[in-house]
Amino acid sequence: xxxxxxxxxxxxxxxxxxxxxxxxxxxxxxxxxxxxxxxxxxxxxxxxxxxxxxxxxxxxxxxxxxxxxxxxxxxxxxxxxxxxxxxxxxxxxxxxxxxxxxxxxxxxxxxxxxxxxxxxxxxxxxxxxxxxxxxxxxxxxxxxxxxxxxxxxxxxxxxxxxxxxxxxxxxxxxxxxxxxxxxxxxxxxxxxxxxxxxxxxxxxxxxxxxxxxxxxxxxxxxxxxxxxxxxxxxxxxxxxxxxxxxxxxxxxxxxxxxxxxxxxxxxxxxxxxxxxxxxxxxxxxxxxxxxxxxxxxxxxxxx
Length: 303
Prior knowledge:
Layout: H1 21-39, H2 45-56, E1 64-69, E2 74-79, E3 84-92, E4 95-104, H3 110-140, H4 151-168, E5 172-179, H5 182-189, H6 191-208, E6 214-219, E7 222-228, H7 232-247, E8 251-253, E9 256-258, E10 262-268, H8 275-291, E11 297-299
Parallel strand pairs: 10-11
Antiparallel strand pairs: 1-2, 1-4, 3-4, 5-7, 5-10, 6-7, 8-9
Helix pairs in contact: 1-2, 1-3, 2-3, 5-6, 6-7
């Protein structure tokens, strides 16, 4: 862990008279123990950062917290943006753990940054354990054929995403995709060509989604896209883009030229949804798309 990389507010001013440094240090010692105990309750990096933000807010008020780990392509945002920031590069020995940025509308005082640095020590080991766990989990949740996440990963991420959506009163949506007439491709060309077609669809769909979206192979020729901060219309537009690109992207597999299309069902999160009910509504919309002639997108009944 190093000193702040930069502070948008410029040079930090001395603490105001009412900010008693000695009292703050005493409180930070007790808070460090509380933080350590609180962080032991989860191995989810996102929840870990949320808990850390909640725990230190009494001592160090702030409007937002942003964690970024470029090596794992992981970003967590808590709260909102604000004018002033204080960023820390986190390391445990020689092991980089990412960067953590605090934001608020007032400047950070020198006494406050000292306390932040002390409290960050309580975060390092739980964060490293969470990152190691997530890395191992990702390896176990990859589909070896397409390189996308697998069904086990979908089950886990869908549960987490709906929990996040409820806590933050935000939105999320789901697209279920199915390759049209895939059985006939296997029957005509064989499974090696069929596998090539699956990879082609995964690559094209993956090139359409945003950085925060997740692509899964649910099973067979069926794929799922999970989108955060997306409503029904936004999900429909993405599904149409994926459908259009797959239809218009030539698929050449071992000398065979295959015309690929997909059907898609779209559903957006509702407050009464469980992971199962959200998926079921998207899946029913997919069935309507296939019944309606395939190579089309249908939306779930949101009334």
